[in-house]
Write the structure tokens for this entry.
Amino acid sequence: MSAGTISEDEFEGSSDYDENDFEDDDEDESDTEFGQTGDMGFQDMITEKQRKKAYEVDFSVLPLADIMAAQTSAASHVSGILGVSLQQATALLRSFKWNKERLVERYMDHSQEILNQAGIVLDDVHTPVLKRPRGFVCMICFDDSSAGPALGLRCGHVFCQPCYEQYLTQKIVEEGECRRILCPESGCNTIVDEETIKKAVQPTVIAKYQQLQDRAYVADLDNLRWCPAPNCENAIDCRLPHSSFKTVVPTVLCACGYKFCFGCGLGDHQPAACGLVKMWQKKCADDSETANWISAHTKECGKCLSTIEKNGGCNHMTCRKCKYEFCWVCMGPWSEHGTSWYNCNRFEETSSTDARDQQAKSRASLERYLHYYNRFANHEHSAKLDRDLYTKTEKKMEEMQRTSDLSWIEVQFLKKAVDVLTSCRMTLRWTYAFAFYLARNNMTDLFEDNQRDLEVAVEALSELLEKPIEREKIAELRQQVLDKTVYVGSRREVVLEDTAKGLAEGRWEFFVDFSK
Amino acid sequence: MALPKRIIKETERLMADPAPGISATPHDDNLRYFDVIIAGPNQSPFEGGVFKLELFLPEDYPMAPPKVRFMTKIYHPNIDKLGRICLDILKDKWSPALQIRTVLLSVQALLSSPNPDDPLANDVAQHWKENENAAIQTAQEWTRKYATA
């Protein structure tokens, strides 16, 4: 087995690449301000380079707490430079989409303008009104009773507390607004500051407000993206410019275990680039292939144009609808066939040849698409079966622990094998979308060789895993599975490495342009 | 559900002290639903016309804006053929401090100053921009044809 060339260590390192990555990065990030386009230390760059494969990208995982801390740390930095309060600095940063450099630079020249924009008044002598003025009528509820608290910003527009609360709650909970909540008065541009909001609304609404702000923070920064896995609250920090996503497939692995594409947020789709993925999904989703099928498998009645599929029988067709009788081969009226019934001799006539050529073309294009789609879909399906296999595997592992003298650690190879198998199937699946758009040339042939090698290896491993476990053969099986797992992993790496390099070098020739 | 005090008071004031050229009457069976009549403003292509509108106060009014729609056909770049109105305060510029009265006054003002640069009815807006006089003439014709009692 060629797996002998690759040591276990190397393989282990490669499949777990991200875990080490993000832990290291995390520590780096806490010193630098990750909200900005900070750069890594030179030392780190070198070690990163050595370890990194062509298809891997640098990224780090940020738990929610870090996201909140990063906002505070950026704000305290700015508040120190500009001499404003922490809260004012946060508001300023928000209005500048957390671009600290630009904020500080612009603030030096146009401080007043920028303060107005963010709705901040420095020496705030007009502290918010909290008491109900004499003879006050709230212009929202028209309540003119004299009791109860009221609220107004320095703009002097006062409304009663319940109305204010309802207004803010509506803005936050219903409209999901957190960036610019304005005074309820029509046309007033005074921004309701965070402190006032927190005083006026219920704790659940404050929590929602905080959540919206964290969301806005991640949305504002190009280098951050939420992990799309359900209930995962982590964000991924990846510093690659978005323009590079045409040639790089930025696959990241969240601490929750979900692997996805940083560029588009879909699940891992290596080796296909985001643009290609989008095009492929659209192609699979829309009706064009249905139309193709119809044109490849059906003909229209020469008289009433009903669509007819011939599912058996001879060439003498009778339209169900209009009773027109014609020949399926040449589409001419059956009456003209004279005595040569059931044996069409008009095959070479030009009008019918044209029709057949057209049909042959669309049939060929359909067959090509179906070839790739079936394999794409098959791996998707197999991946689902793998998940079932995984549960079975767990049972197997328990069984093995009971029936042999292997320890728990030693039976872990099955889980590992299933993990590798699943990720290989995901990769294989996208290689078919990738290949569909490749132009036919030598590079494509090489790619398909690599693809085939991976596919053969994957199926071999899959077969091995489904074998019943026999007590006396456990040690042998373990060895086989380990070997195969390593081999499969290495084949996957070959495919990914090659495609990623090719993308970076512009070596692949696609017959469509998806770089837009 | 009981009608909020705000709506009751607003309705009382609207009835007692109507804005010039505007009347709004709530339905007996639904006090949130108003029949509105706006007179075409003087010196506008809609002068002499009487325009019927419907106005509905949704559940979360005044936190959400009222829904207003023209029932009378009108040739105006910011009002489409279904009578929907393109007016900022009915959308993102809505403030709970605005009222039925202010909304209707804004609609009336919109009749005096059509804004073809922010159109809802594209064909009308284009007509308005390319040949204002001809567009105004069409608006006058429509007013005579559809908006005179």
In short: The first strand of chain B starts at residue 22 and ends at 26. Chain B touches chain A at residues 4-6, 9-10, 60, 62-64, 89, 93, 95-98, 102 (CB under 8 Å). The first helix of chain B runs from residue 5 to 16.
